[in-house]
Amino acid sequence: MKTKLLFILSLFITTISAQQTYNLGWSTSGESVNQQLTVDVGDTVIWTWTSGFHNLLQVGNQSEPGFGQSVVTGPGTVYQHTFTTPGVHDYLCSPHPNSMFGAITVNEPSASIEEVSVLTISLYPNPSSDYIKIISSDLSETLKINVFDLLGKLTFSDLTDDINNYSLDVSNFKSGVYFITISTRNKSSLNKFIKI
């Protein structure tokens, strides 16, 4: 219940702190080659498909939860996302990766919003075929664990209070590279692991 309240509160703060909305086109006409945009935490970006059939996938080593639309859709599609994670978030259209790609740089929240510090996490064994042990010495509260594939699709999510005894079962994951975000109320970590 406490976690749900924190999530709702963070969603509410994100909603009321949204300062600006940005509009971008999304097509092969040249307007979508190396799109570069800098926004603040809480800002919203809207992409509008102006021609052709496309999707918009998050790529790279930054993870913005919920960012991207994996289904290929046609002209007139509108996709929007409110950014909550500071950093550079690369994206592309998988059918047109050479002519439709870009990056959204999300600035740290203003001083009025509590800053998020880095959480020190160790994953072992890495690579692994069955289980990955997650270890951290600086935890004393509930953790949210999310695992994303290379296309940014959420493949696993969990909450735990016992990180020192937590083993992530990856035996049913497909072989490949995955990104794992581990976060508390005011700390977060992004790590990579390989499933063999």
Summarize this structure as a short list of keywords or feature phrases:
196 residues; mainly beta; Immunoglobulin-like; 2 domains; 5-stranded mixed β-sheet; disordered N terminus
CATH homologous superfamily descriptor of the largest domain = Cupredoxins -  blue copper proteins
Number of helical elements: 1
CATH architecture of the largest domain: Sandwich
Structural class label = mainly beta
Q: Under CATH, the topology of the largest domain is which?
A: Immunoglobulin-like
Q: What's the rounded overall pLDDT mean?
A: 81
Instruction: Kindly report the oligomeric state of this protein.
Output: single chain
Whole-Å distance between the termini?
A: 36 Å
Query: Could you give the order of the helices and strands?
Result: HEEEEEEEEEEEEEEEE
Q: Within the largest sheet, what's the order of strands?
A: 2-8-7-4-5
The total count of strands amounts to: 16
Rg, nearest Å: 18 Å
User: Which stretches of 5+ consecutive residues score pLDDT under 50?
Assistant: 1-18
Total domain modules? 2
Question: Major β-sheet, in short?
Answer: 5 strands, mixed
* Helix share, percent: under 10%
Shape: globular
Q: What share of residues are in beta strands?
A: over 45%
CATH class of the largest domain: Mainly Beta
